[in-house]
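Treating backbone geometry as a discrete language has practical consequences that deserve illustration. Part of our work consisted of pairing the sequence of a single chain with a tokenised description of its backbone. We regard such an encoding as a compact summary of how the chain folds. The amino acid sequence and the backbone structure tokens for this protein are reproduced below.
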Amino acid sequence: MPARPELIRPDEASTEAAMGRALDALAAVFQAIGPGEHALSIVSMRTDGAQLSRTADLSLATDPMRVAVLDEDAYDEVAMLLVFALEGSTVTGAVLIATTAAEPRPRACGWTVRAGWLYPMDTAELHAAVTPCPGSSAVDREVYPAPALIDPTGMDEESDRG
């Protein structure tokens, strides 16, 4: 008997639909966080108990609209993890955190994946998630409420997505 349950591959139609939602979600996140230097971090828990995380650094500008990523592979991995989180059959939970470089300290907001879309995270939970451990060299981030992202499909949390 395997130590972890086996992952069941989602069907192609569900994955394709989730890819479209991931592109829409990332566009909405970029609009919400605005121009500047940012880090997008995603953490997801798979149905087999494995925790996956990845961070991608990017720069956004609005005139003209531009997204520049420091490491394309890291960005692709963030996007891929978001696709599987939004699809939902192999992921039990996921959060996406955007950290913006700001003075005197970085600012962070976050969203949790529910029902195939990103919803603002509770700021108390976000604060607990991003507060550095005592003695670590990690930078403390100012937490602010994430803006609600408009779901272009018009579906809400109770809708059945596939």
